[in-house]
Specification:
The mean pLDDT is 92. The chain starts with a strand and ends in a 5-residue tail after the last helix. It has seven helices and eleven strands. The relative contact order is 0.14. Helix 1 runs parallel beside helix 2 and helix 5 packs parallel to helix 6. The radius of gyration is 17 Å and the shape is globular. It is of the alpha/beta class. Strands 3, 4, 5, 6, 7, 8, 9, 10 and 11 form a nine-stranded mixed sheet that branches. Strands 1-2 form a two-stranded antiparallel ribbon.
């Protein structure tokens, strides 16, 4: 079942499909994390129905975003979302396998690459029934190495790669980034409330950069009493 929602009152609209990729806090977190400026060329690896690209456009309209997505139904809905928001000339999608990125997009053609990847190694845990949800959860279709290799191919020298992941995979993530000459430069932990364990981690790596990692203040979604924090309101465009 499909339905359309707004990112915020008067904002861009996105599509939800119960059998494909569901909107999640992960996407909103990642949409708020990259440093954006006018004119950036962005690639979204595993773009699904286009939500992450729309979140970036909600922050900065003077972008060009190219999504790479394998599933044809997701690409179709993403293109509908781009057209519905008047972004069809700046939010485009390439259907294809990111493991074959060299045949899809040119080397060094992007300033920023973003990815909300599958979190779990293949064979771990119980998998969802649908292909789309399996691909979103587990590395059955592409691995962390595949994603970092694709990002390294796409980025210009000095370009940034931003992604969200689980804290238990942080060592794997940082090692794999560096192996692909993507130097981790900025890291932020996410907690549901101040006393909670870290639930997610946001990382920015830069192509060809020198070592030196900045750890940002933790991003907290709720107060100890359960109220929405300023971080939450910023993520979901609820600022007053």
């Amino acid at each position: 079942m499909q339905h359309w929602e707004l990112l915020c009152p008067g904002g861009l609209s996105f599509v939800c499909d119960d059998g494909l990729f569901q909107p999640s806090t992960d996407s909103f977190l990642l949409g708020s994390f990259p440093r954006l400026k006018p004119g950036l060329r962005v690639c979204d690896l595993g773009s699904g129905t286009g939500l992450l690209g729309l979140l970036l456009f909600q922050r900065q309209r003077a972008l060009s975003v190219t999504g790479v997505e394998l599933l044809p139904d997701a690409v179709r809905l993403a293109e509908q979302a781009a057209a519905r928001n008047g972004l069809a000339d700046r939010l485009i999608f390439r259907r294809g396998d990111l493991r074959k990125i060299r045949g899809l997009l040119p080397a060094g053609g992007f300033d920023l690459v973003v990815c909300n990847p599958p979190y779990y190694p293949a064979g771990s845990g119980r998998l969802p029934e649908t292909e789309a949800l399996r691909a979103a959860r587990s590395e059955t279709g592409c691995t962390l190495e595949d994603i970092c290799t694709a990002a390294a191919w796409l980025l210009r020298w000095g370009g940034s790669f931003c992604l969200v992941h689980k804290p238990e995979r942080l060592t794997d993530l940082l090692v794999t980034l560096r192996e692909n000459r993507l130097e981790p430069k900025r890291l932020q932990f996410v907690r549901h409330h101040p006393e909670a364990s870290v639930s997610l981690v946001l990382v920015e790596a830069r192509s060809g950069a020198k070592p030196g990692l900045t750890l940002q203040n933790d991003l907290i979604l709720y107060t100890s009493s359960g109220e929405k924090t300023a971080d939450y309101k910023r993520l979901y465009h609820e600022e007053t």
